[in-house]
Structure of Spore germination protein KB:
Amino acid sequence: MISPRQLASTVILFLIGSSSLFLLGGNADRDAWMSVLVGALAGLLLLSCITLQIQKLEPDRNLIEIFKLYFGRTIGFVFGFIYVIYYSYKCIRNVREFADLSIMFLLPDTPLSMVILIICFISGYAVLGGPSILFRMVEVLLPILITIYIVLFVLLLSAGLIDLGRLMPIFEHGFKPVWAAAIPEIISFPYGEMVLFLMFWRYIAADNYEVVMRITIKGYVFAGSFITLMNIITIASLGQFASWSVVPLLLATTFVELGDSLERIDPLVSLLLFSAVYVKLTAYYLGASIAFSYLFRISLRIAAIPIGIGIYCGSFWFKSYMHQVNVGFERNLKFHFPIFQIVIPIVLLLVMLLRKKVRSKSNSASSTKSVQVEATNEARKESVDVQEAISRQ
């Protein structure tokens, strides 16, 4: 089982994930941080009103079981398999991201196929241990990574790179660009990705589901605030160059020079990026494997094998790192991911509420009918007693 503290840690690190690689909401220019804030608030609405409510109605089931229960075996299987593909594709994107960054910054002479294979093996090893292993690992990693982030921010501040004047003027072009950059792109990445936790919430060791909701929302709010702060620091450090950089945070830290003793802190940024991306891709790998095991009624260890093979092979579909980024931001975030994160969950919740309402009405009708039958039987009994008393007289 997973403790509430482990849940909060995983929500935080999962949402931060690869979001530190990019300037989210870059189309809003210096107001990008406002787009992140708007996206976070919209994502919180989606999480609290849709995603968490689905789990609240069926706290002891995961998403695949819920699909089968409310849509029937055949349609439920189809929807479940679609989510296996969705989770696997998200993992593929993160694996390719991890591999390309490793080759760019650490292993320039290593073949891409070998890097991807190593990533899949390391991630697969964690998946074989089940949800408790992943969540326990994240609980240990989170304080270390947050500490490194704080050190980076202090170094940027000490080096005099942060100038809040680069954030001004706010709403220079009005609110429309801020909204356009936030909806639906920033909801889709990273906040809408919380739909993955419909595979994990049932494993939380809590007295009641209200604890799960409260811990999840607290973790979400912390992560949303942290991502917004990262965007502010990135823009305040790089200004207009933030939206042009491949990895803005890495570019910002290259300007840090404190005397002759501290000039390069790139390894710290690389550690942050690789650790966070690894957690995210492993979470998706695990979610896809659990979904696959429930669909085909096999063990998690067996399900992880075909999912891992599919992830490895699918990682070669992208031609390059920029191709992967362009596909994600130009197509997936706008047209594909909202279907899995917003549309299908809303439809599922409506079906669940309608089915619950019908069941409650049928239960109340049957209970009313049983009461009426009992009343009729009592009336008949009284009538028989009266007739017997009259006949005796």
About this structure: The chain has one domain: 4-392. Residues 189 and 333 are 7 Å apart (CA to CA). The chain has a mean pLDDT of 88. The chain has 13 helices and no strands.
